[in-house]
Amino acid sequence: MAPRAVAIIAGSALALLTLGPIAVVLIRAEGFGALRPGDLEAVRFTLWQAFLSALLSCLFAVPVARALARRRFPGRGVLVTLLGAPFILPVIVAVMGLLAVFGGSGLLNRGLGALGLPRLDIYGLHGVLLAHVFFNLPLATRMLLQGWLAIPAERFRLAASLGLTPWAQFRVLEWPLLRRILPGAFAVIFVICLTSFAVALTLGGGPRATTVELAIYQAMRFDFDLGRAALLAVIQLGLALAAGLVAWRVSVGSGFGAGLDRVQPRWDGRGWAAKAGDAGWIALVAVFLLLPLGMVILRGAPGLLLLGADSFRAAGHSLIVALGSTALCMLWALPLANRRGELLALAAIAISPLVLGTGLFLILRPFVNPFSMALPVTGLVNALMALPFALRILRPEAEAIRQDFGRLSATLGLTPRAWTMLVFLPRLRRPLGFAAGLTAALAMGDLGVIALFADPDRATLPLQVYRLMGSYQMEAASGAALLLLGLSLSLFWLLDRGGRVGAGR
Amino acid sequence: MKALTFAAGLFAASTALADDAVLTVYAPDYFVSEWGPGPKIEELFEARCACDLQFKPGDLLPRILLEGDKTEADVVIGLNTDVTKKARESGLFAPHGQDLSPLTLPIDWTDDTFLPFNYGHTAFIYDTTKVANPPASFDELLNAPDDLRLVIQDPRSSISGLALVLWVQAVYGDGAQAAWEKLAPKIVTVTRGWSESYGLFTDGEADMVLSYTTSPAYHIIAEEDETKRAAIFPEGHYFMVELAAKLAGTDQPELADQFMQFILSEDFQGMIATGNWSFPAALPQDKWPEGFQKLDLPEKALFYSEDEAAALRDEAIEAWRRALSQ
């Protein structure tokens, strides 16, 4: 069967690209290295902070997504788009934004100081968690929101006509949704936080907050101990796969059956308490996420004028990489949008970018000059890294479509092509747009591999931000960061919007 | 238009050997950026060599070790003393063959493979508007009130962070861990690299930052701001020097030699101060730019040879890690 063959090819490419680089690094190192003092502590801290970060992000995402799903208000669309912003910011920019609000001389502490209250210190495990929730709460919220919007309006109508209490409605309609989506969202966020490096280091406050990724960095760039880097990369991968397997087992349930794609009117949540609660959650998350973003904009605006031709050329490179990554990632994701594919893809984010980059370098080296491949490699790696997110977003919907319309199409004897074009893709449009927007924005903001392959003429915008900072050009760096934020958000908005055109909202 | 010439350059690069000899120089990222000395060096050197000088930025030693004897590099510029041991042992580098008498370093330098082109000392930089009485010695820093906010870099991911733990090791020896324990409450955070730390400092997140004695020169010259100063300690400051070396397997040995010679020339050295914001390695102090004359400088430079540094490194990092993990 043709679709099956495509899925197998896509899956093998994924496995090869994930495991190949580690294997190559391992061969070059002639075996695994030994762990150092502190490495086990790093593993423990990495796991603990990733667990807490994922838990908090998912926990807060539930009321926020629920509130957004059942309320309509002016600016809702803009808010939902902006909620995507933290996730795609380059880490260093996001950290600067957070510090402008929560830092020692940030807004919060200035407010506390004016009231004569003691200063709150952001540095430590709570700082790491704050940053990780800032990054990932929007992702979890959007995943849940997609799920909520996928419940057919007919179900809510039925629930209302049966006179279900809000609690009964939650149990019947919303709880199954959470059981289906939350474990996957938790796993994805857990794995993202596993590979966290700069955030944990800057906000962690010291070596207590060391992650495995830092140890990999040290082994690779400082000690040139490839064997130890490979060992740590395998440990990191193992942790991610374990998390993925747990989520895979826990995540159960199927879609809600087919509806007629009507807009969802909701009869629950009409009471003032529910309204106030929803409004409170939306306001809270808006302030928490938008204030740091606002600071990034405020500080970056003057720097925009300082940007030279180099920065704009870098922006052009980033756009090309982002669009290429997005196209590749979507083509890759469609055949893999099932349970097995999703588990496989989780491995991709758990791969240390350093190990991945070095492995690809070693693989490419005998055939071409790796540096002339800087942009294509960055595009490929970004597509690979975004694949798990795309699959997490696409899979529930893709499976629901297969389940709900598979029988119909079998009755009609649709060819795979006709099925894809007439049924599958049109119905998948909303999550597809969201996934594409996310991939594009992630690829724009990624620094990872390009730093290893960098060539002066092929810098991307995130790399340019670091270069500017490294040359004392802090103000221009803020400007470049703002440009990056603007471009990423625009790409995200365009693609996400494209997926929602005519889809009711 | 620029994109077109860039694309043409790509195609030309492989065939350039025919008409113009190419000298490939690996350099750190900051070096080749438009604010670094790279573009100017390229212009000056190409004017005298009738060749094409191509900088390739990125990681230096990890990349060369990965590439081994198949490396494209003819010369590498920007290595630090903490990697010279590993670099030397790889056998990939050749003697520079230069006369070292023009060097104006505060320490003796006799290495026949690695040629210094700039230097600086690690130092804590403070803002005079915030810190009225800066610590006048390392001991005073350790005994400063705990509300002094300090940011440093991680010795496992940053060269300046590594220099700091060696500095503490040089000053306190066996007492290094105890010294770190005293310093710990004042350390707001530890960042991955210099850029993050310095960003925190200029954003007002910290009162002092681990950087270099030359950092205030940037503020004096480029921003006419004299409020950033280095705290000078009589115990001495850890000395950092950046080096260039010629690859043994270069296919352009004459050009590479010419470039090594150019490094010690006044043309090259004259740009280092404001191009790299560090001290030129072979230029007498009276030829430094005016802003550099104003800098506070330590009397004493502390320095470990590569063998000593290699032997002490793990111990120094462990002392740091243990003290700050408590």
How would you describe this protein?
The complex is a heterodimer of chains A (505) and B (326). Chain A is globular. The mean pLDDT of chain A is 82. Helix content of chain A is 78%, strand content 0%. In chain A, helix 1 packs parallel to helix 15 and helix 14 packs parallel to helix 17. Chain A is mostly helical and 505 residues long. Chain B is α/β, with parallel strands linked by helices. Chain B has two domains: 171 residues, Periplasmic binding protein-like II (D-Maltodextrin-Binding Protein, domain 2, 3-Layer(aba) Sandwich), CATH 3.40.190.10; 151 residues, D-Maltodextrin-Binding Protein, domain 2. Helix content of chain B is 41%, strand content 20%. In chain B, strands 1, 2, 3, 4, 5, 6, 7, 8, 9, 10, 11 and 12 form a twelve-stranded mixed β-sheet that branches. Chain B is globular and about 60 Å long. The interface between A and B is large, with 61 and 57 residues.
Summarize it:
Chain A is an all-alpha fold. Chain A contains 22 helices and no strands. Chain B starts with a helix and ends with a helix.
Task: Give me some keywords for this one.
heterodimer, A: 505 residues, mainly alpha, 78% helix, globular, B: 326 residues, alpha/beta, D-Maltodextrin-Binding Protein, domain 2, 2 domains, 12-stranded mixed sheet, 14 helices, 12 strands, 41% helix, 20% strand, disordered N terminus
Residue share in β-strands of chain B: 15-25%
Strand content of chain A: under 5%
CATH third-tier fold name of the largest domain in chain B: D-Maltodextrin-Binding Protein, domain 2
* CATH superfamily placement of the largest domain in chain B: Periplasmic binding protein-like II
Q: Any idea what the shape of chain B is? A: globular
In round numbers, the mean pLDDT of chain A is 82
Per-chain topology:
The complex is a heterodimer of chains A (505) and B (326).
Chain A: H1 2-29, H2 39-70, H3 76-83, H4 85-88, H5 91-102, H6 107-114, H7 125-149, H8 153-161, H9 166-194, H10 198-204, H11 212-222, H12 226-250, H13 272-304, H14 309-336, H15 339-350, H16 353-364, H17 374-412, H18 416-427, H19 429-445, H20 450-453, H21 461-470, H22 474-500
Chain B: H1 2-15, E1 22-27, H2 29-32, H3 38-49, E2 52-57, H4 61-67, E3 75-80, H5 84-89, E4 93-94, E5 115-127, H6 138-142, E6 150-153, H7 159-172, H8 176-183, E7 187-191, H9 194-202, E8 208-212, H10 215-223, E9 228-231, E10 237-247, H11 253-263, H12 266-276, E11 279-280, H13 290-293, E12 301-302, H14 306-325
Parallel strand pairs in B: 1-2, 1-3, 6-7, 6-8, 10-12
Antiparallel strand pairs in B: 3-10, 4-10, 5-8, 5-9, 5-10, 5-11
Helix pairs in contact in B: 3-12, 7-14, 8-14
Family (chain B): Belongs to the bacterial solute-binding protein 1 family.
InterPro entries (chain B): SBP, SBP_1_CS, ThiB, ThiB-like
Subcellular location (chain B): Periplasm
